[in-house]
Design goal:
The protein is built from 2 helices and 11 strands, in the order αβββββββαββββ. A hairpin with a 3-residue loop joins β3 and β4. The relative contact order is 0.21.
Length: 179
């Protein structure tokens, strides 16, 4: 009798393990989804682009709140940044659809948008790009060390075409020429 009860207890435990593992995974995933950010900053892997370089979160000089919505707009849509500033873009997706932000040049964003239309489920892992699920928050830290006119956009198919984009004007530091 005791061995039968022990066997039933062992069987119940074994049957419950997958459900417990799934529950633990779901709660971890939910906690992760609450705040999307990139992996730890590593200056050795930061790559200079024509529009700046991944920023060190410890060097942030300003935080800009940026709202994304199902109206296919970013608010604000026009940003002015001083050359050399490291900015934290604090993103908030107020919509019911997945949105993303991609920083880049106008030509680079148009090229990436065409690629996204061909591969709509493409994952992003670059520091100038971030998916933000509905109702969630995320951040991009970027050092704008190149003066000039740049853009940001949501390149999920149809969003960019509907006007979900904005401009970034990086004002040359004193004594520096603009691009």
């Amino acid at each position: 009798m005791t061995s039968s009860i022990a066997a039933i207890g062992l069987l119940a435990t074994l049957l419950a393990l997958p459900a417990l593992a799934a529950l633990a995974h779901d709660s971890h995933a939910a906690a992760h989804d609450q705040h999307h950010t990139h992996a730890q900053f590593d200056p050795a892997t930061a790559r200079q682009t024509e529009f700046g370089i991944a920023g060190d979160p410890k060097q942030v000089t300003r935080v800009i709140a940026l709202r994304m919505g199902d109206d296919m707009r970013f608010t604000p849509a026009d940003l002015t940044i001083k050359q050399g500033e490291t900015v934290r873009l604090a993103l908030s997706n107020k919509g019911k659809m997945l949105h993303e932000i991609v920083l880049g040049s106008a030509a680079g964003l148009q090229e990436h948008a065409a690629m996204m239309r061909q591969h709509p489920g493409m994952a992003h892992s670059a520091p100038n790009m971030l998916h933000v699920p509905p109702g969630k928050h995320g951040e991009v830290v970027w050092r704008f060390n190149q003066a000039g006119q740049f853009e940001f956009a949501c390149l999920i198919p149809g969003h960019y075409e509907a006007g979900m984009k904005g401009t970034i004007t990086v004002v040359a530091a004193t004594g520096q020429a603009a691009k």
